Amino acid sequence: MHYIDRWTLHRHQKEYYKKRPFSDTVVIFIHGILEGNMQFRNLGSIAYKEGYSVLILLLPGHGETGETFAKVHLNQWVDYVNKQVQQMEREYKYIILVGHSMGSLLAIGYAAHFPGKIKSLVLFALPLAIELKYRVIKGAIKIATGRLSEKEPYVIAECRAIGVGKTKSWTYIKWIPRYIDLFILISYIKKQLNKIKKPVLVIQSKKDEFVPVRVIRLIQQQLVTSKIIILGDSGHFCYHHSDINRLESAFKQFLQEEK
Q1: Which of 59, 76, 109, 186 is the most buried (most CB within 10 A)?
Q2: CB count in 10 Å sphere of residue 225
Q3: Per-residue H/E/C for the chain
């Protein structure tokens, strides 16, 4: 058993932008609820090496304390994404949106309403439904206390993905409206799927502890331009090493095809 100081781990996260000379396309990464943008550093590196500029967003209320997170709301996240993407549209000919979890929902929402310069989308762990497995509750308690075991890779991976610092116990209750925001967003985005006409790469995990496998069928039915890859040994945050290779290869190939 060892202790992880989540505040030290996540308080220094910030928005990241790296311009690729002569690139006419920027890849914009959008993280999910409670997450941080550090999770995209490998994919961002791949995108840059493939000749793309890279922008990794940090949603309002993230990269700070739990108290700060409790005070933000869905409209702020949507407005922030809209503002950042539209700013990039003034500089680039094309935009590729990449999202994880709630970030995937925000990416779809933008592409459905402002498709003009959107070239394609890459969506990880698209949460069109949520079903919490037991290990989520167990893991949340361990993350809150900071006492984790190396034998619990799913919990450690979730902790490392989190982009909100430690907070007082009673503040967690104030987070409830943010989760309600997430379900509101899910309900809304499910009605927008048929508006997406651009190429989409969807990567879902069979052992996802948040998103049920049945979501894949819904994606196949409603997101008709999508290519779906199913990772057999990975979860929502924890990716098996063999799946990481497959994921990164698929991402790289997709970017190459989009040139």
Answers
A1: 59
A2: 11
A3: CEECCHHHHHCCCCCEEECCCCCCEEEEEECCCCECHHHHHHHHHHHHHCCCEEEECCCCCCCCCHHHHHHCCHHHHHHHHHHHHHHHHCCCCEEEEEEECHHHHHHHHHHHHCCCCEEEEEEECCCCCCCCCHHHHHHHHHHHHCEECCCCHHHHHHHHHECCCCCCHHHHHHHHHHHHHHHHHHHHHHCCHHHCCCCEEEEEECCCCCCCCCHHHHHHHHCCCEEEEEECCCCCCCCCHHHHHHHHHHHHHHHHHCC
Instruction: Just list the catalytic residues.
Output: 101, 208, 236
Q: Which CATH number fits domain 2-257: 3.40.50.1820, 2.60.40.10, 3.30.930.10, 3.20.20.380?
A: 3.40.50.1820
Q: Model-level pTM?
A: 0.89
Burial-class residue 165 by CB neighbours within 10 Å (0-12, 13-18, 19+). buried
Averaged pLDDT, 9-37: 87
Amino acid in the structure at residue 96: I
143 contacts 164 by C-beta, under 8 angstroms: no
pLDDT digits (tens, 9 = 90+) for 73-113: 999 999 999 999 999 999 999 999 999 999 999 999 999 99
Which amino acid is present at 186? Answer: I
Amino acid type, 48: Y
Q: What's the confidence (pLDDT) of residue 99? A: 98
